Structure formats: structure tokens, C-alpha cells
Amino acid sequence: MATEIEQETRAEQRDSVQQERDQVREKLRVSRFDAVTSLFLALILFLGAFVFMMFVVWLLSGEPKPQPLKPIIENPAGRGENPEGFERDFEPPGAEEVEELMEPTLADTIEAVTDAVSTVAASLTATDSNATASTSGTGKGDSRPPGPEGEGDDIIGRWERWELTFNAKGKKDYAQQLDFYNIELAAFGGGKNVIETASNLATSPTKNVNNTPETEKRLYFSWKLSNPLLQFDRQLLAAAGIEYSGRNVIRFIPPDLENRLAAMEKEYAEANGKKFPHDIAKTVFESKSGGSGYEFSIVSQRYRKGR
What we know:
Largest sheet: 9 strands, mixed
Helix content: 25-40%
Strand content: 15-25%
Strand order of the largest sheet: 5-4-3-7-6-1-2-8-9
Oligomer: single chain
Distance between the termini: 129 Å
Mean pLDDT: 76
Radius of gyration: 37 Å
Shape: elongated
């Protein structure tokens, strides 16, 4: 009898212990709340680590700064500073040029506006004045020496062999291209011994005046033919408060752009087995949309005969 009682007591104790264990296990069991909380915590930690890694990648992979191109000196020696010539003079327009610089007629203006509706392409050529067509004065040519001894006269200068082409859908697009390249519009001559330039053409045209034209050394170009972009030049100059009637309208090329174009020209010529710059007669650059703005590319290059 006593044995049965002891067995029942032990069984009850075991049951009691088992119940306590089950209760403890129930308390330690992961609830749905705990599972969802853990999931969100894991996602937060993962996203935090991912964002941190992306931040580190952004810091370490910053856009590399382009190294400035070493200027290409085509003419390392020669006749010296400012030999006589006519390419880079700022002279008043001659009697033969005044007619071309007059205000356009109403018919010409209407035709220009009509042409500007579609995409227009126009080319720039360097000013090549002629003493017989000028009212007064003589030229001093390009400020850069012409070249090694015996070779200076055998190189066609950049101002003569380069042609810059712009494709623009309208005045705003054209002005944005000029601003992108830091090209300034300018007017000189017309009885004024100053150079008036305009910058910030696409937003707020700003006027600047150079009272000492002889200090200006930048390469400049003018239109070789009348075209809608010439009308845009005049409108942009007028917006900057610059008088253009009866004056020469030109575009100043910044030195860094000139150097980039020269590097492109050199690479293009050497890829075609030509000697730079001696063999080049004409290089045509074209401006078009590219990357985050605009870029020039070479569309054609013509070489001198017998080269």
C-alpha cells in the first residue's frame, strides 16, 4: 500500500515538474511579435550597412579631376612677337566691308527667322583682313612665333585652317553652347578704339569693355557667310547693350578650348599618318550635344597637296 502511495506521489511530482517546464518553455517560446520585431531589426541593420557601404564607395569613387592639357606649341621659334600681318588686328571695317555690316532689311530678317525654325548649321572662319580694304592702319598678325627656323612660313596657322561649326535649334540653344565653351561674343571697330565683349549669353548677357585692344591675345573667329546665327550674335550683343552696327562681330575662343581643339587635331592627323601641323590645310570641328553638355568633334580634315 505504501509503495502505491509513493509511486503516486512520485508521479504527481513528475507531472508537476513537467508542467513547470512546459510553462517555462511557453514563456521562452518566440512570439509572433518577437519574430516580426527581429525581422524589422535585421532589415534596418542590413539597410544601414548597405547605405554606409554606398557612402564609402561614393567618397572613394569621386569623379576624377581632368588633368590640364599641355599647350601644343606649333611654332616654338621664329620671327618673334607680333610680326607684320593682318590676321589678329582689331581694325575698323573698310569701305568695302561697311555694306556687309549694315542692318538687315525686313525681308532678310523674315528669311532668317524662317530659317531658324529648323536646325541650322553654320561655320566660323577666322578674320582675314586685307590692308587694301581697311580705312587705315596695318596689321601685326598672330602673336605666336611662326615655327622652327626655316619652317615657320610652311605652316598654316590655326586661325586660317580651323573652321568651327555649330548646330543650334534656336538662339537659346546657340547661346548655351557659347556659354558652355566660355566663348565670348565681341564687337570692335566702327570708330571706337575698344573691344566690347558679352558673356553669360544664355541667362543675363553681361557687357565688358577692353580699352587696350593691343593686350587681347585670344584667338578669334568671325562668320564667313551671312546666316541665322549671325543674327543671333547681333541680338545677343544688343541684349548686353553693345552696339554692333557698322562694326566687326567676332567670337573669342578661350585658351583652354583652343588647346583641346589643337590636341584633337594633332591626334586625328597622326592617326591618318600625317605630320602635325605641317600637312594640314583645313580642319572642320562640329559642336553637338554630348555627355552633360556639348562637345566638339572633327568632321573632316583636308591636307596640303604633295604632303
